[in-house]
Amino acid sequence: MAGIYLHIPFCRQACYYCNFHFSTSLQQKEPLVDCLLAEMTLQQPYLQGQPVHTLYFGGGTPSLLAEDDLRRLMERLHALFPIAPEAEITLEANPDDLQPGKLRALKTVGINRLSIGVQSFHEADLRWMNRAHNSSQALQCIQDAQAAGFDNLSIDLIYGGPTLSDEGWAQNVQQAIALKVPHLSCYALTVEPGTALDAFIRKQQVAPVDPDKAARHFEQLMQWVGQAGYEHYEISNFALPGWRSRHNSSYWQGHHYLGLGPSAHSFNGHSRQWNVSNNARYINALQEGKVPFEIENLTPAMMLNEYIMTSLRTLEGCNLTLVEERYGADKRRELERGSQVFVEAGQMRQEGSMLVLNPEGRLFADGIAAELFV
Ligand code: SF4
Questions:
Q1: Start and end of every Radical SAM core domain (predicted)?
Q2: What average pLDDT does range 141-158 have in this prediction?
Q3: What digits encode the pLDDT tens for the residues 244-275?
Q4: Long-range CB pairs of 131-137, under 8 A, 24+ apart, other chains included
Q5: DSSP H or E stretch at residue 351
Q6: Residue 118 Cβ < 6 Å to ligand 1
Q7: pLDDT score for 252
Q8: Which CATH architecture has domain 2-252?
Q9: Cβ of 196 less than 6 Å from ligand 1
Q10: What is the CATH number of domain 300-372?
């Protein structure tokens, strides 16, 4: 069981906080699609014939692709890989791309799940983030997607930003719940080095992000969506029963995946590799018949630490029996010893052989995981 990720590295405009790989120059769109097709052929052996249960078009902004480009990509994927008939096929989309005609086209080419970058329903937040859409598009695209038959729908929301009041955050979450959006991905606004937001803060053109506000918004979020019946199945992800993202879950469960496109990562159980994060260099290499990637072989310690980091972020938690089977009884004991301080602080609990974060610990998930690294 495996997944395939395709990175579409183009955006209409640069959101101030974003550090993903993308270009706002769309001139290379056609050659890049040709190179994705070429890379698929070259990388076809990577998954060793494992059935593919999830496809994910991420970015960047995959909804910028024309129907014909998507159709060519889908046809080649189906020709080269054993894609399961019930595969989850997700496309990340921005609200300003999702007119009814586009939604019909996405359905026609086989997309069965949308992940929409709404971020906020408030105009002030969207302008502050330099998003390409406005607040009415944020709302309208969800209604249009549902009318077009996209029941499997996720929206992204960002909390903790300076323009977002506590009341505004409550309205955003309640709006998503009222619209019956079955999956929410919610992220604290973070200031990544090298982004426009980072520069604005350094020049004191905008106020620094307030971590207390972000913590408050996260705690409120857990409470509101919990009351509305959503499962908090991963630190940043919430789903009504039956609507978890299968693609993202497969990353956390350690399944193999092939990443195609500039900056895309792949994992095959013993090594990780990543393509060059540069559109021109990616295209030049593929035009010469080469995939431009770097590779890292994973040691048992690296794999165990990665398992600790990803599993603690999930509702199910870290399986100590699995740790013992794969990495030895001493590693299990080390983990149990290390976790005691967090159990005593009420941030974590042990249920049988599972180590699970309590709501009090979820805010510090990555820091706790790092403390437990072997
Ligand atoms: S649309 Fe998404 S990928 Fe593009 S700049 Fe904005 S946040 Fe980044």
A1: 1-231
A2: 98
A3: 999 999 988 889 999 999 999 999 999 999 99
A4: 131/15, 131/94, 132/11, 132/12, 132/13, 132/94, 132/96, 133/94, 133/95, 133/96, 137/95, 137/96
A5: strand 348-351
A6: no
A7: 85
A8: Alpha-Beta Horseshoe (3.80)
A9: no
A10: 1.10.10
